[in-house]
Amino acid sequence: MAEIVTNVTAAQIRHAALGFRSQNAAGKTIPQSAALTTIFTVSGGRIMVNFLYGLVTTVVAGTTPALKLTATPTTGTASDMCTTGVITAAEVGSMLVVPVVKGSALIVETAGSGSQTGPGLGGQVVAPGTIAQTSAAADVTGAIQWFLFYVPLDDAARVVAS
Question: What pLDDT, on the 0 to 100 scale, is given for residue 35?
C-alpha cells in the first residue's frame, strides 16, 4: 500500500482535533495525605479540557493509594474533576485519564501500559485557577507526568504547566 503524501503535519492534525497542548516537563510527585499538588495553572479566561491524561513515570506504591484531580478557581469554590481512581502498584508507562463527565472516576489501568480508554467527545469547562492532583494515602509514593489538551473559550485564556 502506498503512503499518502500530505503537507499537513501530525502536530497540525493533533492541534486541530484536540486543541493546544500543555505538559509537565517531568513526573510530578504524588502528594500524600490529601495535599494538593498543582499540575497546571489556567489564566486569562475559561478553557475547555478536551483530553487530560497522566503517564506514570515512577512506580506507584503505598497502602491502596487513590488519586483524583481538582480544579480550584481563582474566585469561587474548588471542584473535583473526577472521583478517585485506585492507582495501587501502577507501573511505569501506565496511563490515567480524566473522564469527560464530572463525578465519574479517574480512568485507571495500572498494569497495561500499551493502551488506555480515551475520555470521549466534549470536555469539562475550567475557570481561571489551578488544576491539581491529590491522594488521600499517607504513604503513597510515585510520580506522574500530566498532558492537557484544551481549547480557550475566552480570547486571553491560556494554560501553563507547573
Answer: 87
